[in-house]
Design a protein that fits this description.
The protein is mostly beta strands. The protein has 3 helices and 18 strands.
Length: 273
Amino acid sequence: MMSLLTYSQKLKDRIQGDWLCVSILDSQGHATTGKYGNADGFLKFRFKNSTFSVCKSPFDKGLIQDIVFKNGNSFDWLPNARYDLPERVYVVKNINDKYLILATRAQNGDTITYYFMNQKNFPYSETKIIDNGIIVVKHLCLSTNKKSINRVSEYQISNDSIHSSLSPTFEYSGGGNFGDLLSINIKLPEDFPLDQVSDELILDFDVTAKGAQNFRIVKGLSNEINSEMITAMEKLHKSWKPLVIDDKPVKTTLRFHIYFYKAIVELQPPWKH
């Protein structure tokens, strides 16, 4: 018992940090999709003390779950669940300073294997602009009430090395991810065209210990939308937390590629579903 406990404590220590998914394979060695999507998109597992979170972007914190390390080589992220759910327990097949390999049971009962790289392998550069990919701001008007708008977002962030460097994080006190909160705080023009994606808007800004600042529209759209973007960012600036290197906050520059989409969603009565 003591040897297993000691080994488990060592595993807890070794697994700490951020791990970027580079591949997900089924039992036949073929690329597959896991509970959180496939490995083509950005996917990060973060371990901090006895907590675990899944991040679908370089900058959002993700939902934090308490986990239990067990049997010396595995962890359970739903330790109080009454049922044996898919991808509940992950078995550590291999771990070192660079790589992490986890195996788990998928929805169909097959064993799938996640392959990760330690994010420390992607060094931070003071002169590099951190490209955090594409955000599509979506305003979906309800057909029963044109003034009622569901403001959401969609991330399009690949697992390419361009998105793999360490990044500041967005931590809104009320919860929620950056994309959705950005969408909530933007008002699109009344005459914004329906059912078509806008051209690209490129936004750069700095993140320091004081939050986000120095917002710059590198490539803009209309003056109205450009102004809305800056106003929305000013409302959210305190929620950006700086990257910390050697226990010190450092200034970084982030870039986002932002598109806008507006549509009318037809609502069907429940009895017609």
